[in-house]
Amino acid sequence: MTILIFIFLIMLEAVFWFSLFVILTMLYWVFFRALKLVFNKSNETKGKLGLSMIYSLGYTFLLTGWIFGIVYLSEILK
Fold first, then answer.
1. Which of 1, 43, 59, 75 suits 65 as a labelling partner, its CA being 20 to 30 A distant?
2. pTM of the model
3. pLDDT of residue 64
């Protein structure tokens, strides 16, 4: 019985580290993708605070929305 618990804990640890890696990778991608998109629009939005805020809010909703969409779909398909 102790061996089975030990094997289960090893498997649980692997799942934990893999999940942590996936979450950190998603956040890394979102952050640097957002920076790239923002800097691509810098010439267009220079001196226009309202337009800059519209772009930043739009990118924020789009780039974090897919993460919430994945979580929502995983809850539905569960």
1. 43
2. 0.53
3. 81
Helix, strand, coil percentages, rounded to 5, for the chain: 90, 0, 10
Number of Cα atoms under 13 Å in the Cβ half of residue 47: 1
pLDDT in tens, 9-61: 999 999 999 999 998 988 888 778 777 877 888 888 888 888 888 888 888 88
Q: Could you tell me which of 22, 11, 24 has the C-alpha nearest to residue 74?
A: 22
Q: Are 44 and 51 in contact (CB under 8 A)?
A: yes
Structure tokens at 72: 């929502």
Query: Distance (Å, rounded) from C-alpha 7 to C-alpha 42?
Result: 53
In degrees, rounded to 5, the angle at the alpha carbon of residue 66 between the alpha carbons of residues 65 and 68 is 65
Distance CA 41, CA 55 (A): 8
